[in-house]
């Protein structure tokens, strides 16, 4: 199997239908918040059988930890009918998966205040960037649109530390636009989520008099 083998250190539930995978950091792996990896695995284990290319399932996941010193985290939304995520959610630690990367040019270098907007699974990189900003002495805003929020504990910790956290229902696009307008000048704006979400964010930036091209936007497709 291609990629670098890494050990799954732990898997924990972080929200409805959502788990966080903590993986060992391989030698030479250096990633910044905002980047992603390609994870390869053979779900449901083929035991001693020879692994065929058709057995390997690959998915991209964006880092959800602010650092990658000894371990790093990926946040995984569980699709009950998916080929990979239910298997990942059932892991207990000690298993081996393979990764490639990091990939992506959207990064946070701990050098400025941030406004991190997240739709659904975009909360992983958004909370990681906000935590990295706080750890570096910078201000952070998280705007998160989801009916069933994940990483509530980390968001509450950020809020207690002085970050501004805005939680919105998934159909509250007016609230999303208002939050973008309110916090447009509060830091470098990042947006992570599916196409409909990031398009709404870009439109809100423009409507508020900003330049969407200056935002760092990751479209999950």
UniProtKB/TrEMBL annotation:
It comes from the Archaea. SUPFAM superfamilies: Ferredoxin reductase-like, C-terminal NADP-linked domain, Riboflavin synthase domain-like. CDD domains: FNR_like. Pfam families: FAD_binding_6. InterPro entries: Cbr1-like_FAD-bd_dom, FAD-bd_FR_type, FNR_nucleotide-bd, MRET, Riboflavin_synthase-like_b-brl. Residues 1-109 form the FAD-binding FR-type domain. One of its GO terms (molecular function) is oxidoreductase activity. This is Oxidoreductase.
